[in-house]
Write a structure and sequence with these properties.
The complex is a heterodimer of chains A (about 180) and B (about 180). With about 180 residues, chain A is an all-alpha fold. Chain A is about 65% helix and about 0% strand. Chain B has a six-stranded antiparallel β-sheet with strand order 1-2-6-5-4-3. The chains are: A mainly alpha (about 180), B alpha+beta (about 180). The interface between A and B is large, with 50 and 68 residues.
Chain lengths: ~180, ~180
């Protein structure tokens, strides 16, 4: 065995490692014949011995807590954020700020301020009338059916708001019509 | 840092969502675009969409509309020509589902007319003082036509019925009126 290998073995020996009898014998034989390694081994044995003789210090509670926090963090947060990388975090922040800015801008944006032209107004007026006429037509049809089917006293209260010449329910002719149905 | 990011995200969402949702989300509005999707764009013979800002301007230029449209938020109307029975059936079914949905959402049925030549549904959204929304659905059997009208905003049914009596605009003769029957 070379001196380097012997010194590694001595290190392990000082740290309390157990080696086989054959290896132990080779180290002993080498140290007996090599003054350099023997001095090196004695020196390290002395250092270790003096370190062991130092008084044992109590770790303060604060230090223990800090160590505990560091060692337990991985258990508390097993999933690591994808924003660990500075670049991603910056992009995420920029996106959030942009979204907030767009939201605020849209929120504060006034309605359309462009004044429609005369022609556009005329078209819009005609469209409105067409739509309203469709509704009026449906109302007239409903009114006619209500009258025809003599539902004078049964139609919805809201429908009564539609101006119609409702037959007088006290009129005997209407009463007869109702009985026929 | 993480908490700050969370606060920013929430803030951005609060500002951004209402901005994105801006549109005809007013009381009494009912989206009729699904009827067009069911029938296909080729079936559309009339499509009218007027929003509050334009309606408010109209009140200054049209005497009749000023009485009606002053409190209106939007007018939407669709007239579809039904090419075949399959589309007609599909629209009738969806009209029924729409009616159920509205009734479940606090709307009232003003009238429902079933005649040989047409089915008419009229639904209104009432608050304590006035009508806030109106939906008219007409399925014309003989003319193979489907009509959907939604008016959102404060509505005077009485004035509407009277308007229908007095209108004489070019183009309106194309729209079926029960007076012609």
């Amino acid at each position: 065995m070379s001196c380097e290998e012997i010194r590694k073995q001595v290190h392990l020996d000082l740290d309390g490692d157990v080696r086989g009898a054959a290896a132990d014998r080779r180290v002993t034989e080498h140290l007996a014949s090599c003054a350099g390694c023997r001095a090196w081994a004695d020196e390290h044995a002395a250092i270790q011995s003096s370190l062991r003789s130092l008084p044992e210090l109590q770790l303060p509670d604060l230090a223990l807590q800090r160590i505990w926090k560091r060692t337990s963090r991985s258990d508390e947060r097993p999933v690591r954020s994808i924003y660990r990388h500075r670049g991603l975090r910056a992009v995420a922040m920029a996106a959030m700020v942009l979204a907030a800015a767009i939201g605020i801008w849209s929120w504060r944006q006034p309605g359309p301020s462009v004044q429609p032209s005369e022609a556009e107004l005329q078209v819009a007026a005609q469209e409105a009338r067409i739509a309203l006429e469709l509704v009026a037509g449906a109302l007239r049809r409903t009114r006619r059916v209500a009258l025809r089917d003599v539902l004078v006293d049964e139609v919805s209260g809201t429908l009564r708001k539609v101006p119609v010449d409702w037959p007088d329910s006290s009129n005997p002719e209407n009463e007869n019509r109702r009985n026929k149905t | 840092m993480t908490r700050l990011a969370l606060v920013l995200v929430v803030a951005a969402s609060i500002f951004a969502v209402p901005a994105a949702a801006a549109g005809p989300e007013v009381v009494g509005f009912v989206d009729g675009s699904d009827f067009i999707e069911l029938a296909g764009d080729d079936a559309v013979s009339v499509e009218i969409s007027l929003q509050g800002a334009l309606l408010k301007i109209l009140t200054g230029v049209d005497e009749d509309l000023s009485r009606l449209a002053g409190g209106l938020e939007s007018i939407h109307a669709v007239v579809l020509e039904l090419e075949n029975d399959r589309i007609k059936q599909r629209l009738a079914q969806f009209a029924g589902e729409t009616e159920k949905r509205l009734l479940g959402g606090g709307w009232d049925r003003l009238a429902r007319v079933r005649e040989a030549d047409a089915d008419v549904k009229i639904l209104v959204l009432n608050d304590e003082e006035a009508i806030q929304g109106l939906v008219v659905i007409v399925l014309e059997h003989e003319e193979a036509e489907f009509v959907f009208v939604n008016i959102a905003g404060t509505l005077d049914l009485s004035a509407l019925a009277q308007l229908g009596e007095r209108m004489d605009l070019p183009g309106l003769d194309q729209i079926p009126r029960d007076d012609d029957e």
